[in-house]
Amino acid sequence: MTEHYFSARPEAPSAPRTVRLALDDLTLEMATDSGVFSAGHVDPGTKMLLEVAPEPAVRGDILDLGCGYGPIALTLAHRRKRARVWAVDVNERALELTRRNAEAAGRGNVRACAPDEVPADVRFAAIYSNPPIKVGKAVLHGMLLRWLPRLLPGGTAQLVVQKHLGSDSLARWLNEQGFATTRLASRQGYRVLTVHSRPGDDPCTNSAAPS
Ligand SMILES: C[S@@+](CC[C@H](N)C(=O)[O-])C[C@H]1O[C@@H](n2cnc3c(N)ncnc32)[C@H](O)[C@@H]1O
User: Collapsing DSSP states into helix, strand and coil, what is residue 91?
Assistant: First the structure.
């Protein structure tokens, strides 16, 4: 059976290597491995997201939804050293790589964990994601409906999606769900979508707002 990058425990034998992410404001060397998304090079969509998306809030909680080996989480944690960056994934090998990469980069403000390990009262000032389109529409929609309502009022999610993998229909669906969604950028077959928090979503169940 074909193994996907979103397997919880990839069975592919380990084949460690290093990839480099070069942005205007930082260069990162990161460990990757077989069985995780884009193990051989930083995904062009991920790089575009990090180049064009607005900077996150200075403080508070930020989510990298589907962190892989951590390029988005580590960049956000570098840009916002006083924020706490939750790097969430279902792939345990990816989470372990993110932990190692965060430690190697000295980014103690990254928390890499499985989705169920994020405390229920955490609300996000911003969400960034190169979402796993290949899980299928039903799972993807469920995942977005799980996390987008946890944006703080006025918060945004920045999603990078390939046009041929359905970025425009995803934007339509998000609008239908009440999340005002606009196209921030379009380049080389990728779109970055900005998704706004939905009016009426409960901002905080027990006043554990990030300081
Ligand atoms: C397209 S990859 C992006 C990885 C990384 N952010 C990057 O840019 O290289 C999407 C990631 O989402 C993860 N994923 C799949 N289903 C998920 C779920 N239900 N919750 C959280 N992450 C999930 C996959 O394991 C994969 O690592």
Answer: coil
Question: Is pTM beyond 0.85 here?
Answer: yes
Q: How far, in Å, from the CA of 70 to the mean position of ligand 1?
A: 10
Ligand 1: atom nearest CA of 139 is 19
**For residues 61 and 89, what is the distance between their CA atoms, to the nearest angstrom?**
16
Task: Compute the distance between CA of residue 196 and CA of residue 148 in angstroms, rounded to an integer.
Answer: 9
* Ligand 1: centre distance to CA 49 (Å): 15
Tokens found for residue 37: 């998304």
Residue 192 pairs in a beta bridge with 160, 185
pLDDT digits (tens, 9 = 90+) for 49-87: 999 999 988 889 999 999 999 999 999 999 999 999 999
| pLDDT tens track for 86-123 | 999 999 999 999 999 999 999 999 999 999 999 999 99
